[in-house]
Structures are given as structure tokens and as C-alpha cells.
């Protein structure tokens, strides 16, 4: 099979690469080792926060605004609800680096937001407990994305635009040729002018030069059943991120009218290979996260109703890796737990690089060469 661009991995970023390329009229073949819309990717887990008040750095804001437009465009072209505009509330002590970044992200870009002191927080959002000197910053452009629906819809629209999407095709080798690259899967061979590797935690196997810079970490998600679900409805309880006493908690309002998603961030160590990921926590581990959730959200019980374990690949500086790594090969991986919200833009950047175009964003901070010895 011959094509212009082959995309390895059809999770959130790979789906977006395929979507962008197909809409431009580029011949693209997407290769997925699992089924289309599988549950092995970092994006899975029913909901993901989207925020423009960014804890990591204000440098991401132009990309975040573009990603938001693209998510809404994708939703308009579909019959699915992909984005819930709940707002996102960041809670923390004033002057901490993450809270400074949130405020700078919003103020420097003149984005709609509101700053709440502790008394105002307690009055408006009584669901949050243990509020002392903390402040809250409400990012009004923030919200909640539905990742499984979003990836499925992206693949559908990519296919409608002409992308060939193949499942159960595990790529085991990428080798250079005179006209580009040849990809060998467990079942077929694809020749392309360029390949984009967007295979998440499996990327290091196809791009060995990144191996030592990529660490696989479990992502644990927990859901709790409140006594009064209406108090956690999207119109009353925005998505949130909170830092207090070494605890980094995040949460999503009740989208189903029954459960509230909340829990720790990437606080679960690492694994050496995807196959080593355990899919369930011990009772002691569940008790630990439940205790923190209950302490900071006292109307949620101390025991989660359910949980699930996922995984993502992290870099030492927690910035993604997007760029060329050899003749005819671009990589898009290592998004360190905050790639899904930016998937449309990372997909656009990788599509640009694969077709020899200059991205409209400064991509230097994602350059793979920063990890070269």
C-alpha cells in the first residue's frame, strides 16, 4: 500500500493528524494496533479538563485558544456533545508558581475570568472544604471534554475526508527508503513519503533515540457518589484543580447526574513497559486517595464508587515531543498528562511537519533534539 503520510497510532493526537491531513487532501493511512476507539490510550476516562488559565505556562495560551476553536468546530460538524463549557476553577495559595501562571495566562491574553478570595470561594462553592488563605481563579473559557466521543468523532470525520484507517495493525518497524519510509506491521506493509509516530506509551519502541527520555506513568481516575448530586451539577460546580499541602487534586462535575470524578494527578510511580500496567488499585491505595478527596470535598464519601487505571508517557521537563527524528519520520508523543486538550493543535503541527510546511506556532520547546546526549 502506498500513501503520502502514514500515521502510527490513532489515539487523540494520531486521530487529529489524520483529520488535518485528510481535510487538506493529503493521502493518509492511519495504523492502529488495537481497535479504533480503544480504551488503552492516555485520553480515556470519560472526561478531561480543558483550561486556558494554564498552570504549566502562559506560553501555551495561543495553542489552547486555537485548540478550543478546533474542538468546537469538530463538535459543530457532529451530532455529539464534545465540550461542556463548565469553566475551570484553579484553587491555591496566592503567589505560588502555578497560580501565577494561571493569572498571567488569563490577564496577558485578556481572557474572561474571575478572582475569588477565600470568603467568596466558601460562599459560592461550598462543596470545597478546608479553605483558609487560598484564592480561586475561575477560567470562564474552560470546561470539560468527552475524550472517547471526541476521538471517535475525529476518526469518523477523517475517514469521511478520505483517510484510510486500519485497525489491528501493529507497526513493528519503520525503515527509510529512497522515496520516504516503509512501515511493516504484523499483517501488511505500507510505503509512505513520511510517517508520523503518535503511538503514546509505545512510541519509544519505534523511536529508540527517545527511549531514555520517556517514562510511562499510571493515571488513576476515581469517581464518587455524592449524597446530593445536584450540588455537583455542571451549572453549580465547575471543573477544578486544587493544590494544598502537597496534594494536587483535580475534579469534574457530575456529567451523568450520579457520580463526581475527582482524584490525584500523576502520583502513582512508573512502569517499565505498557504490559506491566496494573488495571486495579489495592484497597489501601483507594483509601489514600479517597481520604484526600473527602477532606477537600467533604460532601463526597471517603470511598470511591469505582476507579480505572490508564497510562501516559512523560518527559523529564513535562513538555511534549513534536518534531522530526530522522529522514521521513516525525514524532508526536510524551505529552506528560496534558496532551489531550491540545490534541487538535499538536495534530496540526505534526501534519505541517509531515508535509514540509512551517507550523504557525513556535514549536522549539517541543523539539526532540533537546534530549540528545
Characterize the structure shown:
The protein has 373 residues and is an alpha+beta fold. It folds into two domains: 2-43 and 148-209 and 318-371, 3-Layer(bba) Sandwich (FAD/NAD(P)-binding domain); 48-145 and 215-314, 2-Layer Sandwich (D-Amino Acid Oxidase, Chain A, domain 2). The protein contains eight helices and 19 strands. The strands form three sheets. Strands 1, 2, 9, 10, 11, 12, 18 and 19 form an eight-stranded mixed sheet that branches. Strand 15 (247-252) and strand 16 form a beta hairpin. The longest helix has 16 residues, at 61-76. The chain is globular. The chain starts with a strand and ends in a 19-residue tail after the last helix.
Task: Report the radius of gyration as a whole number of Å.
Answer: 21 Å
Q: Pairing-aware structural class of the strands and helices?
A: alpha+beta
Model regions low in confidence, pLDDT < 50 over at least 5 residues: none
Most strands sheet? 8 strands, mixed
Measured between the Cα atoms of the first and last residue, the distance is: 36 Å
Overall spatial form: globular
Q: Which range best describes the helical content: under 10%, 10-25%, 25-40%, 40-55%, 55-70% or over 70%?
A: 10-25%
In total, how many beta strands? 19
**Average residue pLDDT:** 96
Oligomer: single chain
The total number of structural domains is: 2
N-to-C series of helices and strands? EHEEHEEHEHEEHEEEEHEEEEHEEEH
Can you name the CATH architecture of the largest domain?
Answer: 2-Layer Sandwich
CATH uppermost class of the largest domain? Alpha Beta
The number of helical segments is 8
CATH fold assignment of the largest domain: D-Amino Acid Oxidase, Chain A, domain 2
**CATH superfamily caption of the largest domain:** D-Amino Acid Oxidase, subunit A, domain 2
Percentage of β-strand residues:
25-35%
Amino acid at each position: 500500500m502506498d500513501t503520502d503520510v502514514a500515521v502510527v497510532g490513532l489515539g487523540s493526537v494520531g486521530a487529529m493528524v489524520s483529520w488535518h491531513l485528510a481535510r487538506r487532501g493529503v493521502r493518509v493511512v492511519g495504523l492502529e494496533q488495537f481497535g479504533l476507539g480503544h480504551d488503552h490510550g492516555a485520553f480515556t476516562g470519560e472526561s478531561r479538563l480543558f483550561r486556558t488559565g494554564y498552570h504549566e505556562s502562559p506560553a501555551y495560551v495561543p495553542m489552547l485558544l486555537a485548540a478550543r476553536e478546533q474542538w468546537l468546530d469538530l463538535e459543530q460538524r457532529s451530532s455529539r456533545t464534545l465540550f461542556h463549557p463548565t469553566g475551570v476553577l484553579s484553587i491555591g495559595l496566592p503567589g505560588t508558581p502555578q497560580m501565577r501562571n494561571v493569572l498571567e495566562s488569563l490577564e496577558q491574553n485578556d481572557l474572561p475570568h474571575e478572582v475569588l478570595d477565600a470568603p467568596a470561594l466558601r460562599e459560592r462553592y461550598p462543596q470545597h472544604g478546608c479553605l483558609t488563605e487560598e484564592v480561586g481563579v475561575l477560567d470562564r473559557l474552560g470546561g470539560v471534554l468527552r475524550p472517547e466521543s471526541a476521538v471517535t468523532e475525529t476518526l469518523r470525520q477523517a475517514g469521511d475526508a478520505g483517510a484510510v484507517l486500519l485497525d489491528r495493525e501493529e507497526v513493528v518497524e519503520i525503515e527509510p527508503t529512497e522515496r520516504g519510509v516503509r512501515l511493516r506491521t504484523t499483517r501488511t506493509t505500507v510505503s509512505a513519503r513520511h510517517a508520523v509516530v503518535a503511538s503514546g506509551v509505545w512510541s519509544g519502541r519505534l523511536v529508540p533515540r527517545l527511549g531514555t527520555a520517556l517514562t510511562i506513568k499510571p493515571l488513576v481516575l476515581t469517581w464518587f457518589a455524592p449524597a446530593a448530586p445536584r450540588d455537583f451539577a455542571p451549572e453549580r460546580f465547575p471543573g477544578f484543580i486544587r493544590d494544598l499541602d502537597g496534594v494536587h487534586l483535580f475534579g469534574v462535575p457530575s456529567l451523568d447526574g450520579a457520580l463526581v470524578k475527582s482524584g490525584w494527578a500523576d502520583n502513582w510511580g512508573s512502569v517499565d513497559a505498557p504490559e506491566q500496567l496494573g488495571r486495579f488499585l489495592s484497597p489501601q491505595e483507594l483509601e489514600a486517595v479517597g481520604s484526600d478527596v473527602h477532606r477537600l470535598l467533604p460532601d463526597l464519601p471517603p470511598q470511591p464508587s469505582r476507579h480505572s487505571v490508564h497510562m501516559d508517557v512523560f518527559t523529564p521537563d513535562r513538555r511534549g515531543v513534536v518534531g522530526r527524528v530522522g529522514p521521513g519520520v516525525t514524532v508526536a508523543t510524551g505529552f506528560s498528562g496534558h496532551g489531550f486538550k491540545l490534541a487538535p493543535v499538536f495534530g496540526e503541527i505534526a501534519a505541517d511537519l509531515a508535509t514540509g510546511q512551517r507550523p504557525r506556532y513556535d514549536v522549539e520547546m517541543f523539539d526532540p533534539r533537546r534530549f540528545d546526549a
